[in-house]
UniProtKB/TrEMBL annotation:
<dbReference type="InterPro" id="IPR036188">
    <property type="entry name" value="FAD/NAD-bd_sf"/>
</dbReference>
<dbReference type="Pfam" id="PF14691">
    <property type="entry name" value="Fer4_20"/>
</dbReference>
<dbReference type="InterPro" id="IPR006004">
    <property type="entry name" value="SudA-like"/>
</dbReference>
<dbReference type="InterPro" id="IPR019480">
    <property type="entry name" value="Dihydroorotate_DH_Fe-S-bd"/>
</dbReference>
<dbReference type="InterPro" id="IPR001433">
    <property type="entry name" value="OxRdtase_FAD/NAD-bd"/>
</dbReference>
<dbReference type="Pfam" id="PF10418">
    <property type="entry name" value="DHODB_Fe-S_bind"/>
</dbReference>
<dbReference type="InterPro" id="IPR017927">
    <property type="entry name" value="FAD-bd_FR_type"/>
</dbReference>
<dbReference type="GO" id="GO:0016491">
    <property type="term" value="F:oxidoreductase activity"/>
</dbReference>
<dbReference type="InterPro" id="IPR028261">
    <property type="entry name" value="DPD_II"/>
</dbReference>
<protein>
    <submittedName>
        <fullName>2-polyprenylphenol hydroxylase</fullName>
    </submittedName>
</protein>
<dbReference type="InterPro" id="IPR009051">
    <property type="entry name" value="Helical_ferredxn"/>
</dbReference>
<dbReference type="InterPro" id="IPR017938">
    <property type="entry name" value="Riboflavin_synthase-like_b-brl"/>
</dbReference>
<dbReference type="Pfam" id="PF00175">
    <property type="entry name" value="NAD_binding_1"/>
</dbReference>
<dbReference type="GO" id="GO:0051536">
    <property type="term" value="F:iron-sulfur cluster binding"/>
</dbReference>
<dbReference type="InterPro" id="IPR039261">
    <property type="entry name" value="FNR_nucleotide-bd"/>
</dbReference>
<dbReference type="Pfam" id="PF07992">
    <property type="entry name" value="Pyr_redox_2"/>
</dbReference>
<dbReference type="InterPro" id="IPR023753">
    <property type="entry name" value="FAD/NAD-binding_dom"/>
</dbReference>
Length: 762
């Protein structure tokens, strides 16, 4: 897969690459594009598919060396492999018999125009194609275009071939001599802008194909947003083709130049132990448990003070992007904390755990020094104990049900102990694998490798199923990788958890978008008897206020994906990122905290949280707020952005804030913020990160015929996580709209139990 079958030089800097990609070739339609990545530190780069051969299993890309990433791709030769090729993405071109159609292609834009011309001709249109380039050497695919066009007009800037002049001159010539019913334009943004200005004058509907800045390409990050008819759209999921008369090309051109300076700098640099499978089934009445309870009186246990997690110094850590803030417990601390647990006959803590961990048993194993047994206990029901021990809001779940709270004491530090046990096992080298049931030969598919998908995969593997996880990105882990910074959740921790699932027999397939690269129908044809959708809710929300599409205003998804997944802040990464000195993060959740603390670590002199409610209403974990304050983060609560102001280059320079006060509680129980009339404040910023929630990613749900969806695009499920289609289950953000890691994992476990019951009864 992804092997370069052939490479052809069109000109000095333009190449045609034929790439082995059978799934993409089979699914591709005119207008679709792919995301390509070269090297483990490479940038994700969108490229339109110029042609596809389903029989040969290949796709054709035409690439021009214009930046670092395209240069790296063009340096590859026949026989080399491209690190990642994912697609097909975007909406297919709408084709019908319009009548007479003018197709204007400029430079490498001629390549994606070719399949459109072929489709238009096949639909019965009269097709007149205008090819344009600076010189004869830059006119590509002329022969192929002539085969599918009624007429081909060639324009060159220097007059070295065809006629001397711009593409607009060739288009206008046709318009003046005959009736034109439709126009398609693909090429540099400035070319498309002027073609659209021309056709608008003559009232000719015009479609353009936009190639904007992208990071993920699946609608998750929001980097590709543009303004269409006054509304924000995302090129990767809503496009790439739009009504050219509605596109704000000036804004688009500014946004496309956001990282040019960084690109130039980068181009300059370019030039220079055996697992055990036994599970401790000992319950509360086991002799060792009874002996432990008798060893210390309950009153004495309750009087032990809760341990404090060891942390890096705030000043030091605020400049360290990859060092974990929380340093974990020592063994002595963990054993002491475990002694606080009363081993209740009816443990309330377990009722607060979405995945049903036997909390007293794993804690009591720590108390008696059997740490590996504690880790195995965790793995009986949790696929990601080291992750959950770090990022789960235990204070709102298991710890909130601890009996110590009823006694006026602090809850047992269940999360700290979970992390300790998982880390101890990993560092010991004696990593256990949960007991696996006898293989039943039944194939099940998981769409998405976030917490819900991984949890489902782990449980189904235990049941004996042949589990395959399909991930759209080039790394397994979903939000655990792209969304959570390493100072909270190191990638190495996630990787070990994933490796453990692989040891259990779970197969992982990256760079595969179900609904684009492969369809649910195809999965069923390939023998998958059950499908679990855990594709997440990665479509970022914006506030839709004036100036929000200015340069250096991005979603938290985009910002964190660039920094976390693509390692953009590292000097050896091809992916750029904006380094702001005065950074405003809009929102009050955990993602907002992750973003503002990341900005601080990337050199921000002033990093601010702007939140429309008071601190008491903030949904972020208390620990996150505490850590942020210790690191020097400013909190502007009861403030709400109403406008961004940009400089002459289109870069944000200020944000206008509306001061708020709290009114009556809303449906969620939090007091609603109310504007204070006439009270505004304008502050200087050079980077804004919007973290005001996400919406469900539409790619998977929209591709499944007959699937019932909720009002906001979520998948509708019953109590067993089963959708309106009996063989399809779903969980996590795609169902909830937004969920914690542990709630998503709980959905995965519930779905696995229900699907297993369904499939095993047949």
């Amino acid at each position: 897969m992804n092997k370069i079958i052939s490479k052809e030089h069109f000109s000095e800097k333009v190449f045609k690459l034929v790439i082995e990609a059978p799934l993409i070739a089979k699914s591709r339609k005119a207008g679709h594009f792919v995301i390509v990545r070269v090297g483990e530190k490479g940038e994700r780069m969108p490229l339109t598919i110029a042609a596809a051969d389903p029989k040969a299993g290949t796709i054709t890309l035409v690439v021009q060396e214009v930046g670092l990433s395209s240069t790296r791709l063009c340096e590859l030769n026949e026989g080399d492999y491209i690190t990642d090729v994912v697609g097909p993405l975007g909406q297919a071109t709408h084709i019908e018999n319009f009548g007479t159609v003018v197709c204007a292609g400029g430079g490498v834009g001629v390549a994606p125009m070719l399949p459109i011309v072929q489709a238009l001709k096949a639909a019965g249109n009269r097709v007149i194609t205008v090819l344009a380039g600076r010189s004869k050497e830059l006119i590509i695919l002329e022969k192929e275009m002539r085969e599918s066009s009624d007429e081909v007009i060639i324009m060159t800037d220097d007059g070295s071939y065809g006629r001397k002049g711009l593409v607009t001159e060739g288009v206008e010539e046709v318009i003046k001599r005959e009736k034109v019913d439709k126009c398609f334009a693909i090429g540099p943004a400035i070319m498309m802008k002027f073609v659209c200005l021309l056709t608008k004058k003559y009232g000719i509907p015009t479609e353009v194909s936009l190639n904007t800045i992208m990071v993920d390409g699946t609608g998750m990050c929001g980097a590709c947003r543009i303004t269409i008819g006054g509304k924000t759209k995302f090129v990767c999921v809503d496009g790439p083709e739009f009504d050219g008369h509605q596109v704000d090309f000036d804004e688009m051109l500014k946004r496309m130049g956001a990282f040019k300076a960084i690109e130039r700098e980068e181009l300059h640099k370019l030039d220079e132990c055996e697992a055990t499978k036994t599970i401790d089934e000992n319950g509360r009445t086991a002799p060792w448990r009874e002996e432990l309870r008798k060893a210390i009186k309950a009153k004495d246990r309750a009087n032990i003070e809760r341990c404090k997690m060891n942390e890096l110094d705030p000043e030091y850590r605020s400049h360290s992007r990859k060092e974990e803030v929380n340093q974990g417990l020592t063994k002595e601390q963990a054993v002491t904390e475990a002694q606080r647990c009363l081993d209740c006959a009816n443990p309330g803590c377990m009722t607060g755990c979405p995945v049903g961990i036997d909390i007293p048993r794993f804690i009591k194993n720590i108390e008696r020094g059997e740490i590996l047994e504690a880790a195995k206990t965790l793995k009986e029901t949790s696929a990601l104990p080291a992750v959950c021990g770090r990022v789960c809001p235990q204070e709102k779940q298991c710890e909130s049900k601890c009996i110590h709270l009823k006694m006026g004491k602090e809850a047992v530090a269940i999360g700290h102990l979970e992390r300790f046990a998982a880390d101890y096992e990993r560092e010991s080298g004696q990593i256990s694998v949960p007991e696996i049931g006898e293989k039943n030969g039944i194939k099940v598919a998981v769409i998405g490798s976030g917490p819900a998908g991984l949890s489902f995969a782990g449980d189904m593997a235990k049941y004996g199923y042949d589990v395959t996880v399909f991930e759209a990105l080039h790394e397994i882990g979903g939000v655990l990788k792209y969304g959570i910074p390493e100072f909270r959740l190191p990638n190495k921790i996630v990787d070990v958890e994933i490796e453990n699932l692989a040891k259990m027999g779970v197969t992982f397939i990256k760079d595969c978008i179900v609904g684009k690269t492969i369809g649910v129908e195809q999965l069923e044809e390939e023998g998958f008897k059950g499908i679990f959708v855990a594709s997440g809710a990665g479509l970022p929300n914006f506030m839709n206020i004036p100036g929000e599409n200015s340069i250096n205003i991005m979603s938290s998804n985009e910002y964190l994906t660039r920094v976390n997944l693509m390692d953009a802040a590292s000097p050896d990464s091809d992916t750029p990122v904006a380094f702001g000195k005065n950074v405003a993060v809009i929102g009050g959740g955990n993602t907002a905290m992750d973003s503002v603390r990341t900005a601080k670590r990337l050199g921000a002199e002033r990093a601010m949280i702007i939140y429309r409610r008071s601190e008491e209403e903030m949904p972020a974990r208390l620990e996150e707020v505490k850590h942020a304050k210790e690191e020097g983060i400013e909190f502007l609560t009861l403030h709400n952005p109403i406008e961004y102001l940009a400089d002459e280059q289109g870069r944000v320079k200020q944000v206008v804030l509306q001061k708020m006060e709290l009114g009556e509680p809303d449906a969620s129980g939090r007091r609603s913020p109310v504007p204070i009339q006439g009270a505004t404040e304008t502050i200087d910023i050079d980077l804004a990160i919007v973290s005001v929630g996400v919406s469900p990613n539409p790619i998977v749900p929209s591709s499944i015929k007959g699937l019932e969806l909720g009002r906001k695009g979520t998948i509708t499920v019953n109590d067993q996580m089963q959708s309106s289609i009996p063989t399809i289950y779903a969980g996590g953000d795609i169902v909830r709209g937004g969920a914690t890691v542990i709630l998503a994992m709980g959905d995965g476990r519930r779905a696995a139990a229900a699907m297993n019951e369904q499939l095993s009864s047949k």
